[in-house]
Write a structure and sequence with these properties.
The complex is a heterotrimer of chains A (about 500), B (about 450) and C (about 130). Chain A is of the alpha/beta class and about 500 residues long. Chain A has 19 helices and 12 strands. In chain A, the strands form 3 sheets. A 7-stranded mixed β-sheet of chain A has the order 1-7-6-5-4-2-3, with helices on both faces. In chain A, strands 10-12-11 form a 3-stranded antiparallel β-sheet, covered by helices on one side. In chain A, strand 11 and strand 12 form a beta hairpin. The two termini of chain A are about 40 Å apart. The radius of gyration of chain B is 25 Å and the shape is globular. The mean pLDDT of chain B is about 95. Chain B contains 12 helices and 12 strands. Chain C has 3 helices and 9 strands, in the order E-E-E-H-E-E-E-E-E-H-E-H. Chain C has helices at about 30-35, 90-95, 120-130, and strands at about 10, 15-20, 25-30, 40-45, 50, 55-60, 65-70, 75-80, 100-105. In chain C, the strands form 2 sheets. Chain C has a 6-stranded antiparallel β-sheet with strand order 1-2-3-9-8-5. A 3-stranded antiparallel β-sheet of chain C has the order 4-6-7. In chain C, a hairpin with a 4-residue loop joins strand 1 (about 10) and strand 2 (about 15-20). Classes of the chains: A alpha/beta (about 500), B alpha/beta (about 450), C alpha+beta (about 130). The interface between A and C is small, with 6 and 12 residues.
Amino acid sequence: MDSTNITKVTPHISHNEHLIFERSQEGRIGYSLPPLDVDETPLDELIPAELRRDDDLEGVPEVSEVDVVRHFTRISTWNYSIDLGMYPLGSCTMKYNSRLNEKVARIPGFANLHPLAPESDSQGALEVIYELQEYLSEITGLAGVTLQPAAGAHGEMTGVMMIRAFIDARDGREASAKRRVMLIPDSAHGTNPASAMLAGFTVKAIRSTSEGFTDLEHLREMCAAGDVAGFMLTNPNTLGLFEKNIREICDIVHEAGGLVYMDGANMNALVGVARPGDMGVDVIHLNLHKTFSTPHGGGGPGCGPCCCTKELEPFLPVPRVVKDGDVFKLDYNRPQSIGRVKAFYGNFGMMVRALAYILTHGAEGLREVTEAAVLNARYIAEGLTSDYEKPFNAPPMHEVVFTDKRQSRKGVHTLDIAKRLIDYGFHPMTIYFPLIVQGAMLIEPTESVGRQELDQFIEAMRSIAREAKENPDLVINAPHSTRIGRLDEAAAARRPILRWKPKESASAA
Amino acid sequence: MRYIPNSPAEREEMLRAVGLERASQLFDSIPADIRLEKPLGVPSALSEMELLEKFNRMAERNRAATRPSFLGAGAYSHYAPTIIDHLISRSEFFTAYTPYQPEISQGTLQAIFEFQTLVCQLTGMEVANASMYDGSTALAEAVLMAERITRRKRVIVSSAIHPEYLAVADTYVQHYGIELERLEIDEQTGRTSTEALASLDDKTAAVVIQSPNFFGCIEEVAAIAERAHAAGALLVVAVTESASLGLLRSPGASGADIVVAEGQSFGVPLSFGGPYVGLFATRDKYARQIPGRLVGEAYDKQGRRGFVLTLATREQHIRREKATSNICTNEGLIALAATIYMETMGRRGIEETARQCAQKAAYAARRIGELQGYTLPFSAPRFNEFVVRAPSNADELLSRLASEKNITGGLALSRYYEGRETDFLVCVTETNSRAEIDALVEGLRSIAG
Amino acid sequence: MANVPEDLQYSKDHEWLRVEGDVAVIGITDYAQNSLGDVVYVELPKAGEKFEAHESFGSVESVKAVSEIFTPVSGEIVEVNESLNDEPEKVNNDPYGAGWMIRMRMSSPGEVDSLLSGVEYEEFTSGETE
């Protein structure tokens, strides 16, 4: 492997580690519990044998504490992470996860609090929820807030169900029965149509223009066709562009009797600069794990609050956290609510972290973050234009899309560029999304990257562009520096092995 | 702002490099009439010390967090080995994203593969996904999956399922044309009444039960499975107290087709209700109908084993509105905590925890049942929760127990049910010492007296 | 260049059809399997199901895409290729042979006449690639 251009990383020993089941040895113990301190009743008297396990938990590992610590420490080193460096996944907002927020979420008064404890003895937790609701309302410019949804897609489902409930109440069930079309741009996240389906809507796509914006003519046409319940829009859109006609878009949809749903995945471009409520948006979900820095944790937990206008507020999920004088309360008396979307009150631990994020930044710091995030993306856009095709001219907000158009002439595709970037010590960008851009590479640096690393990234990308011309095979066969090469995903999907089985029974199963 | 690496001078240079003079010009593409021209109404920044002080003050107002508690009902206090929090706090786990790039995500992928295996082992099922948001949403997704598999619209659900789980299922299915019919509770045993199962027909997609149920009673899962299968319906079993899997016959061995569970019992803090982790398992033949992420084994050209996200064509990012669910990722870090719990406790620790829960609950139930004025209304075998019928209003009694004796004695069932004003639900786990149980018994005696 | 046997009929949805009496054997073309990439799963109907012409009768999945497959003619399914459950790669390796998908009893065999010949299909696909 040619490594002369690689400045960010040096290859290093990596430990092998089998599955824990392959490490397990009968008789090893990793736990300690005090001895049972009550008189023991024969189990048969408590629970009849036919209701008890008879497999002696066969196959569950038996390992020592040291085994577990080594096991997870070793496999952890096989992961890339934000703390190792820039993680430029477009639309994912991989920003720094503050240790202080972790500490705060672990304060015993929060971590050990049972969700069904009496309200009077949970006032601090209810206060966290209430205060975060207030700030999210201010940031979005929308009056009503629920923190119950557990993730962005869950927030989307909540939001579109509220739209449906609102329309049913406004028009009457009979009149609204036909109004079941949800318009979604062809550039949208896949969760949008899937969430709209859950609320019983029929999805119709709205085209994007060659400049990368919502096609207003097509939107007008689809709205004129009738039955439109709403339009789900990401803004800035998934191409990283601010939908400059947003006011007009909202007017068109509203005049057609529909509501505007905004996917808030890209709020890191807007906090402190512009508010969806001021644009005419009716309901939005936020991703606390993106904009508000709660850790992604290898794929969750998230938290997907939903914010809405005053008119939609009665339809928010129950219970709502409200303030009555100095006392915080759970309000279940919301007859028009869409119901509950999750047990208890949502991913509370994420709310604590997000509130800590907001308070640590303050109003000024929040705007500073937005400026830094957009500046970093603009800097990358500028730095890569000479070597990569940039399909849209408009200046990007917090993320920028490039394509493999120039490189693919030599047989080097987006996937190869992404894999080669790994050799340079970077996590790849989002690839092949949005779907409307062939060979898309969506790059979102976030505010958490310094200039030196941005320069290293730009240099790595330029170096790969050179390699694609001079030595395409080097790129096509990347990565060269990882523990494993590209995996045969087709074979894995044809005959899926989704769990470990002991050797002897593996052939029988 | 200390989380932004670039100094003001560097930012100035970068602005010039992109041809701008002022930071505000970065937002020129936003029409002026919708730009926010004033600062947000958010307080000014707090230092680290100030922030800690504020949160400590709020946490102190959560008085319930520090007193002995016998609350369960879907969220359980269990011992969590110290190493769990240390290991999940490694940057490589908690600051990583979904493992889309397998070459640099093998740590997360291997951990999920182990998680899927452990969930299969404990539930007695053949295939498990990478996790769901929590038990309640997992149950709702199981109902939708049963409809997909059977193409039937009638679903029969036990009234002894956690009321909040039922509420979530109602929300999820309301636009699907699925009817959720309730099965009554047998007031003698505390189990789901099986009489109404006579109405099972060829329109029934699934029977849905929880075991141990919301009242702590262990259901006759195998018998209900037989009835459901005879009608061509699936059996969905929900478990809210996963510690019970260490002792009770697994839902899989009892004939369940889909098993969902709340995994919070496996080393996850109570944290006022979340984040928790939903377990979702089924039979091999339904693997392509499962919602959410799946990790599978794969090999590279050199024959080295690795793990990869697989069967992705079920998912929203490919199939969009035709996906099996709108769920995007899983509960990664919480699933990791549960994995570390299951492996550290291991075969013997999971069993021992379950044994202690059952024994301590039995001791508490016996002592409370002997008190004058208190009865245990339900006769079915139980794991670690049971309903107590008090001599007076349970809510008032528990409030007094909290203020006078500093014990959270359980959950007044009037929170969810009409006509159960004197009933409350008590949960005992391995974390409740005999001294705490004795104090609860003594407290109940003196307050009723 | 994709393989287009001359003795088969083709649809614009990239299915091929071979007439055997009143039964049509149907699969997807070499061109189609090539643009899909590695086929990992084929979802097929059950024997006895009836379809109109140009109706979706199943889907073909690659690692990261799902494509519907359409009946070139109307009729009733008499047999499906169960072996594709275990070996979907047959669609890639032998699309006109072991990778066949369904056998259908045609309800209006005349529909075959409206399908493309090998030469026509080849022309059609070369237009699509441009």
